[in-house]
Design goal:
By secondary structure, this protein is of the alpha+beta class. It has 34 helices and 17 strands. A 5-stranded antiparallel sheet has the order 11-12-13-14-15.
Length: 914
Amino acid sequence: MALAKEIMGISLLEKSSSSFMNSSMALLNPNFYQKENQLWFNQQFQGRRNLRTRKALRQSPMAAISENLIKVVPEKAVKFKVRAVVTVRNKNKEDLKETIVKHLDAFTDKIGRNVALELISTDIDPNTKGPKRSNQAVLKDWSKKSNLKTERVNYTAEFVVDSNFGTPGAITVTNKHQQEFFLESIVIEGFACGPVHFPCNSWVQPRKDHPGKRIFFSNKPYLPNETPAGLKSLREKELRDLRGDGTGVRKLSDRIYDYDIYNDLGNPDKGIDFARPKLGGNDNVPYPRRCRTGRVPTDTDMTAESRVEKPNPTYVPRDEQFEESKMNAFSTGRLKAVLHNLIPSLMASISSNNHDFKGFSDIDSLYSEGLLLKLGLQDEVLKKLPLPKVVSSIKEGDLLKYDTPKILSKDRFAWLRDDEFARQAIAGVNPVTIERLQVFPPVSKLDPEIYGPQESALKEEHILGHLNGMTVQEALDENKLFIVDYHDVYLPFLDRINALDGRKAYATRTIFFLSDLGTLKPIAIELSLPQNGPSSRSKRVVTPPVDATGNWMWQLAKAHVCSNDAGVHQLVNHWLRTHACLEPFILAAHRQLSAMHPIYKLLDPHMRYTLEINGLARQSLINADGVIEACFTPGRYCMEISAAAYKNWRFDLEGLPADLIRRGMAVPDSTQPHGLKLLIEDYPYAADGLMIWAAIEGWVRDYVNHYYHDSAQVCNDRELQAWYAESINVGHADLRNADWWPTLATPEDLMSILTTIIWLASAQHAALNFGQYPYGGYVPNRPPLMRRLIPDENDPEYAVFLADPQKYFFSALPSLLQATKFMAVVDTLSTHSPDEEYLGERHQSSTWIGDAEIVEAFYEFSAEIRRIEKEIDEKNADTKLRNRCGAGVLPYELLAPSSGPGVTCRGVPNSVSI
């Protein structure tokens, strides 16, 4: 035993001496670090087993004895230089003020108002008992490089450290300039461990505005209880700074993440018509929390927050704001919206007849020639418009007309067909509402004392002739009947909606039959209105037509279904379930998970831009008199419908497999590849989605298992537990007492929660968002609102309908102004920006995490995503899959992971970024 101790002591002394020699050799031999680098990289790939061995060694009695032996022979510290390479990203375009301040900063940099850095070791300084710090170093040549026009500029700084400094784990940055700058990354070269990467990707504010030093951590992840001693206090300080104190008006340069209710959608100071209910913090109107801005209350209502209107920016933490290329793409879309909205306004002023589309040719002209050109007014209007300079880079003709939506690309009349109407329920822009019909007739869950009988008006005779000889019960038993049911969503709001000017709606139910070919066909549509009296005819059923009059009735009924569908899609499935419900998880992640936490590093790309796009939505989309209210049937009641749906939202059912089972679209089956059997085998959204879900789940499993080996590690991770608890108790406070919230006690729990969040942020949002213009840009296919009910034989309008059914049909659709405004907005929302990061991609993929085993696992995930994309392409060419291949049938590409910029009807970005 004594011999073993002696040998162990000698070997460790030799290792220590070797470390000393390495430091000395590095100073003499510039090629030394390249060899050390390669050695370090190779060692990383030996994986977790070596890590466990080293931990066991550190805990052994022999290690403790050897440490004492080392203390007996103290090393003499040797000073040497290390270099920082700092990458700063320039703005492509600067305004005059920014240019002047930039030149001023270049001048004052020479006299000491510079950018200063300080290295911080992972070790504690034995003298100060605080983090071990280097000397301060400043960026060189700022003034010389200030005029470089390149996108990225590299600066250097030199530190002098001694050989017992340890490994750098953090770096502070002090900006003594007048202007902020975007710090992309820092690499420290010269340590024996090889280059140390600091991925920053943050705006560094001037000291005059934000006196504290900015802290950046290296890319090496640490669970909280494994944080090196030298970094513990910095880890805690950084999180405290990000949380703020919950008071004050936020400045645009702040980086503070906090919560508030949706009390900023209305503007009561403009009048009662602009007041809106507060969403959240109220038992009657529950809602997720949003990012706090701290603006002062309105003059009229002290509980309502004052608004900031465009073009003034609304607050989100500085690093959440769109980067320049993203903002340029978004602004171009907004510019197109302004022009497109102006054109029909001018037309309407010329002739009152232009308020409605006269026929299909009027709609076609939006894509082919542009309305102004058609009227000979193009030159006159262009002279009057104060167009910004950005227009000069775009063809004026393109700005004055719309791109042809994809729904028209293979068959201009596909939208009229019943099979296409049904196909879009499983392969369109809203494929997440359809359910298997389990009881016929369907029954409402609304209170019968308030909303009348719960029974449906649908009878067996309505559908019996469309079941291929089956009885209704046989069709139910064989899983042949499906339903899209909006009855309970809309009925409580219909009296108020139908009292609005130019809005008319039903609460609809649509029954579909599954054919032997695997395609759906609509066989009955129920249209319900509130019961206004004991003898009122509040429910009617429309069935597939047998004559000309019935055909137009059927087309109007389908249009009303599509209008219901468009509202639920936008307000519930898209906005609420992906945008709004994810925001609390993102806020809590920034507040409770350190940037060095491995779970933060996993979630980081899936949180990009979400707070910014949600802030922009509150400013101009979901606000009082905003685009959503203007363009969708519920009008001023849009967000109340969204809040009503939130009462039934359940995080535990938001994952794809759970959602498919909940809707009866799949049943558990262990023999199937994903553990599920789809009841409609050719269900493109579900089939493609399950492949992506499984890939995300596999990646998350590898990631979580790498850092958490047992339940104790999950339970004892205070940052992780604080993140999840705050997401529920504060971010989703109105539902915090629900018993369905998943627990977070095991690695498996963590995998499930993270997979669901990543799925919602990436694939689920992509499936619901990027088809909006390709399918909805042709308004008759998916009218976002309706202006007329279907006339009854006893109605005065019935004679008008019979005399000119096409004119009546177009008078029921959105007006020219409403349609073009809607088209301009969904065009912008369907557009990928040039800097988009797609699923399976990581910007700075080689440096985002200092763990080679995780990098390797990510490359495997990326390869699986590419394989899935090829399989989707193959499915879209398979003629047996009639819901995605056939004459005039659009391929289903909304879950094809990659895409170029623009409106492509494909591509799965990592995050909710538009």
